[in-house]
Amino acid sequence: MRPSDMGPSLEAQWVRVRARLKVEFGEAAYRSWLKPLTLVGQDDGVIKIAVPTRFMQDWVRQHYADRIKTLWRAENKAIRLIDVVVQSAVAPSSVVAASGSTTNGSAATGFGAAGLGGARAANGAIPRPAPTGLAAPALARAGQDETEDFGAPLDPRFTFQSFVTGKSNEFAAAAAKRVAEESKVPFNPLFLYGGVGLGKTHLMHAIAWHIRKRHPARRVVYLSAEKFMYQFIRAMRFKDTMSFKEQFRSVDVLLVDDVQFISGKDATQEEFFHTFNALVDQNKQIVLSADKSPADLEGLEDRVRSRLGWGLVADIHPTTYELRLGILETKAEKLGAAVPPKVLEFLAHKIVANVRELEGALNRIVAHATLVGRAISLEGAQEVLHDILRASDRRVTIEEIQKKVAEHFAIRLADMHSPRRARAVARPRQVAMYLAKQLTSRSLPEIGRKFGGRDHTTVMHAVRKIEELRGADAAFSEDIELLRRMLEA
Predict the structure, then answer these.
(1) How far is residue 161 CA from its own chain's centroid?
(2) Residue-level pLDDT at 148
């Protein structure tokens, strides 16, 4: 049948069919299995639809092809068959344009340059399909933000060129560059560990950027362990674990940040274990990071801990004065700011906790000087950073807070990490979480992990609860203020 005899265009029919599929099968199944489908064309009543992988081809044929045919026949009685093919087998010249005619490179509905099937450009044109061999459901692709539903976005600032190397991090940096530059897997996994703000995340982003640039056809996905867990729970909730497995086991390079987050999460550890093994068996690269070495991570099964230490374990030590000064000099040069050497030396001496705080302090000084129109000076820096400098002089740890609160309320220190919910234990634990949020720079997930691997929402609830109690009970508020003063003394 000629396109001119078909009534509404193929593309218009496809849009309506997709809309019905989304309503019938739900958002989760649609996003995982139906949104990535690409309309190729129609020949003698046979609709040809392309999918990214052979796995998806089998799944769509088995579970959705008959329903797609039924819905399409409601739109066009001439349609008699749905043919599902793998994207790489589709020649570019055979893709049908919105009008129904054949064109070179314009798909009726495909993977646009910025997303999955069905998206249109701002001018109404149909976007081009993904290059052969790169299309996959919600997977990383070169020059494309794949992170809407799957991974996390990469920070363009975090490259090897912007990473300042010193004695404390040179081994980890060298290992990261080796992984990024080798076409074969040199060691699996690469496990980076160190304290907060020492450069683990920077190196992981740098690896991902470098591989995408050198090998654009390789599928690279970066995400946090927390997001891995969220995706897994979501897949179980919507009974869509097959999609989850296909996504994570079809990548070429998987980078997972803060794997200590899965400590104590048995179901997530189980899935992570199987994903890890599947990728290693396929000789796919895995890069992991944590705040401790695999041997020191608590709450992990022995088999998971042993897998994490299979490859190369590289630690990042606390920064030295020389490294901090080098980081500040590099940062000041990028900002184009005239920062006196004495100011940089002062900051390198005073702010030793982590690089993020160090760079944040420099940003603050430069911004203040720019806004008020004054030259940067040592006296001005001390004035602008008075709160940071005071905090760095006396830094309270979560462990100190837990110990002091446990003593104050006469409970065991172990109760801070236990699952007990009795009020006599839960309330002091909430107080400790509240004070950890007030007196430390740790994030909510980090605080939760220090309290027996609890979720960040538990910490948020504790903070709100203590704030409410302080507002309603003056005696309780004074008690909390006394604890604060004792810890800050």
Answers:
(1) 22
(2) 40
